[in-house]
Structures are given as structure tokens and as C-alpha cells.
């Protein structure tokens, strides 16, 4: 597995932030080099952003996370659902499988042209795939869950189509059968930050499984593939000791940049 580089991490993280309506205006300039296509839900809210540059091979597909009570409520339905991905089926979180089937329409069409997300995304990306471009699927929270499901689907359709998968704060998607048959473990990076409670969801660690390589950002370090239970207890210990650690000199040194603006 190739390492995820710093500039890639930063770019993907900002693009995930830009998927939300309250994104900082200062980040908008990162979109300047890209051609763009949006997939919009029935409320007219952008749910998927597709970005590419003509002379580059990578197409970046960004999935927005939960937005509003209805989305969050669906995330709480931990009921396993049998999902078929071409030649294979497995059990996944019902709430995330629902997102694949939600009616969506392209920003270039009207709501009457709505199709299920998975079907519409295949249709929109096909011309780019025909040009030899490869897809990077990224997403935050439930958007990260949809990203791994869609990446696996495209990988089964065309084993050369997926470049990488990067998710931020992603909950677990499916059961052991999903983990066992996931096709992109070696190209998937799951970024977790400190004690992000959503990354421990659903709360059934031996039933719902994460996929890919985990990169845990904690205490100014990157930890790789730390077991869930160990990550939880280290985070809890760090949280309990945090008032003491603020006394360490490294905390004072880390804040040196504040004086550039003082």
C-alpha cells in the first residue's frame, strides 16, 4: 500500500469540508483548477461533487456526510441489510444502503430525471472512465461509508477504475461478510481523529467491521491500524490527563504561530 501524502490528505480534507453548505469561503479557491459536476438530492442540496482536470488522470468523487435530523435518524438504524454488488452480496448497515438507492439528479438536469444514486453515478462517470481516468472516492462521516460502498461497486465493475479511497470520521459499514469480500483494503485509508465517537459506531465492534488501513491522528502522531478497543482506552486516558499535559513545554512551543498574528 502506498503512503498517503500530506498534500493529498490536505486536499481531500478540504474538499470534504467544501461538501457542506457552511464551508469557509477561504477554501473555495481549491476548486478553481477543476471541472465540476454535482449530484443533488430531492431538496436541491448537493450530496456528491465530482471534480477533474483535463490533463490529469484522477477524478475525485466527494460524498457529503449527514445533514439534518432525517439523515442522522437513518444512521441510527443499525439493522443489517443484504446488499448485492454485482457478483457478490453481503450484509451492510441499512441506513447506508438506503443512501445508495436515494433518488438523485445531476446539476445539469431537472428533478424529473432523478435516478438512484448508484445508478446515476455510474452514468455520469462513464464518459470519464472511457477517457482512461481513475476514480478517488472520498467522504466524511456517512459520506465516507457511501464512498467505500461505491468504490467497491466500481472496482467490481472495472478492476482498473479505482485509484484510492479516503474517508474521514467514517462509521463501520458492514458485517464480517462485507469485510471479507471488500475489494480495496490495500487502497483504502480511513482517517480517525482523537476520540471521534462516530468512528466507533455502530456500537457493535465484533459485528460491524471497518475496512482498509486506519490512520489515527492522536497526540501529534499518526498511528496505523490501532485496534478499536485500544484506541478507545488510549483516547480516554489522554482525555482524563489533558489538564496536566497542557502544562508541558511542547504545548507552549506548538502555539508559537499565534505570535505571528499578535
UniProtKB/TrEMBL annotation:
Residues 61-204 form the Fungal lipase-type domain. CDD domains: Lipase_3. GO terms for biological process: lipid metabolic process. SUPFAM superfamilies: alpha/beta-Hydrolases (SSF53474). Gene3D superfamilies: alpha/beta hydrolase (3.40.50.1820). PANTHER family: ALPHA/BETA-HYDROLASES SUPERFAMILY PROTEIN, FUNGAL LIPASE-LIKE DOMAIN-CONTAINING PROTEIN. This is Lipase.
